Amino acid sequence: MSRADQERWDARHTAVSASGEQACLPPDALRGRLELLPAGGRALELACGRGAVAVWLAQRGFAVDAVDVSGAGLEAAAALATRSGAGDRVRLVAADLDDGIPASCPGPYDVVVCQRFRDPRLYDAMAARLAPGGLLVVTVLSAAGDEPGPFRAAPGELAAAFGAIAGLQIVSHDEGNGAASLIARRR
Ligand SMILES: C[S@@+](CC[C@H](N)C(=O)[O-])C[C@H]1O[C@@H](n2cnc3c(N)ncnc32)[C@H](O)[C@@H]1O
Fold first, then answer.
1. Which of 63, 64, 86, 138 has a CA that sits 20 to 30 A from residue 80's CA?
2. Cβ proximity of 15 and 73 under 8 Å
3. DSSP type of residue 159
4. Which CATH number is 126's domain given?
5. Atom 27 of ligand 1, nearest CA residue
6. At what angle do helices 71-83 and 52-59 cross, to 10 degrees?
7. Does residue 115 contact residue 79 with C-beta atoms inside 8 Å?
């Protein structure tokens, strides 16, 4: 990622921090389907931003590795984890995912979440980090029900990409209104 892009993300996270407190939230794709979440174990969140999902998972007992390139995002995530009493279960990792999933996050993980960040070059690596029975939860911007754009998945992208990965079973795939979500499980 370019320095300018990183500074843009830092500025965005800093502005949100200044605007008030932040909640811990389940991954978008799991709302209404929380029964799919494993009982506990290790979790990885890619592009965790301000940590809402990472800390939500930690509150449910997961030991979470949360990766982002933005120092401001990670600072907000650290503060949220501490405020939520889950600081000892969240490990924040500063890394540029353009270089792949960091070597310090080898897994295996019982849950891998990536939402509102799309890099198809990471799809295989995300699936490879799953433990047997582990759950993958992905949400991206999509051209389905919206205009195509450089950061948007083409309709069907998630189902085609993850459906082609051996040992992965797609549990659900939804797209429309400019978003696409996929939940899959490692057999
Ligand atoms: C739209 S935010 C989503 C944050 C969080 N996943 C959520 O759902 O609220 C996108 C995040 O991706 C991070 N990001 C963008 N490009 C990245 C990269 N190459 N490596 C690591 N993080 C990146 C940004 O810093 C930002 O926190």
1. 138
2. no
3. H
4. 3.40.50.150
5. 49
6. 30
7. no
Structural domain count, the chain: 1
Give the closest residue to 10 by CA, choosing from 51, 70, 88, 83.
Answer: 70
Indicate the average pLDDT of the chain: 96
Residue-range definition of the domain harbouring residue 117 = 3-186
Dist. CA 106 → ligand 1 center (Å): 20
User: pLDDT per residue over 85-141, tens digit each?
Assistant: 999 999 999 999 999 999 999 999 999 999 999 999 999 999 999 999 999 999 999
Structure tokens, 40: 């506990």
Q: Return the structure tokens found at 60.
A: 């449910």
What helix, strand, coil percent values describe the chain, rounded to 5?
35, 30, 35
Write down the H helix ranges in 3-156: 3-18, 52-59, 71-83, 123-128
Interval between CA 105 and ligand 1 midpoint (Å): 17
Instruction: Find the 81 Cα to ligand 1 centroid distance in Å.
Output: 18
Question: Quick check: helix, strand or coil at residue 48?
Answer: coil
